[in-house]
Write a structure and sequence with these properties.
Layout: E1 2-4, E2 12-13, H1 15-18, E3 26-28, E4 36-37, H2 40-48, E5 55-57, E6 64-70, E7 75-81, E8 88-89, E9 99-100
Parallel strand pairs: 1-3, 2-4, 3-5
Antiparallel strand pairs: 6-7, 8-9
């Protein structure tokens, strides 16, 4: 499944909104005003994702997260570059900063 929330003036990504979503393959939240990202959002999306991949597009936000591949464990990871004044935080099932608060 694909979810596009681009250009909606979002400022935060919360776990409560994304935890019910299963089998999400693509998430487009580019060109919003997202600074705060709860670290559990991507951990659950990756854990519930049976496809082994997640296309994530967050360009044009103060905080941006991207997907990568961790060769040591052969798993998909999400890492975030946080907006000025925010600190990266690690969510469940993640090894890198997967949120910003």
């Amino acid at each position: 499944y694909t979810l596009s929330l681009a250009n909606n003036q979002l400022s935060i990504l919360t776990d409560a909104v994304f935890s019910p979503l299963q089998q999400l393959q693509s998430l487009f939240v580019r060109d919003n005003n997202i600074s705060e990202i709860e670290p559990g959002v991507f951990g659950k999306l990756l854990f519930q994702n049976t496809f082994g991949s997640l296309l994530l597009s967050m360009q044009g936000n103060p905080s941006e997260c991207r997907t990568g591949w961790r060769a040591a464990t052969q798993q998909l990871v999400v890492y975030c570059l946080c907006a000025s004044g925010l600190v990266g935080s690690v969510g469940q099932n993640q090894v890198m900063a997967s949120g910003c608060s």
